């Protein structure tokens, strides 16, 4: 039981780290390139074009992307729980990998 818990914990922390890296990359890359090391100083200054770009365009875009992705994932999980169809099941991969079902 503890090994399964540690496996899920490691998986969750890995996904969280990937999300943080993607957020930092998304905030820093665009038509106007903003260095990752400059982001804290830009946010603390509270003025300038870079501050406007970060607070009005890039950060809201990242928040919206996280919200939409999370809601789509949650919706898919709910629909899978309600319908319980074989073709949407994660165990379908077992049937596709093994070519024995073709011989039937």
Query: First CA to last CA: what distance?
Result: 38 Å
Spatial shape? elongated
Secondary-structure element order, N to C: HHHH
Arithmetic mean pLDDT: 84
Question: What's the total helix number?
Answer: 4
Strand content: under 5%
Rg (CA only):
21 Å
Largest sheet: none
Helix content range: over 70%
User: What oligomeric state do the depicted chains represent?
Assistant: single chain
Low-confidence stretches: none
Domain module count = 1
Q: Based on helices, strands and strand pairing, what is the structural class? A: mainly alpha
What is the strand tally? 0
Q: Quick recap of the structure?
A:
The protein is built from four helices and no strands. The protein is mostly helical and 104 residues long. Helix 1 runs antiparallel to helix 3 and helix 2 crosses helix 3.
Structural notes for this entry:
Helices cover 72% and strands 0% of the residues. It is mainly alpha-helical and 104 residues long. It has one domain. Helix 1 (2-28) packs antiparallel against helix 3 (49-83) and helix 2 packs across helix 3. The protein starts with a helix and ends in a 7-residue tail after the last helix. The mean pLDDT is 84.
Q: Would you spell out the secondary-structure blueprint of this structure?
A:
Blueprint: H1 2-28, H2 39-45, H3 49-83, H4 92-97
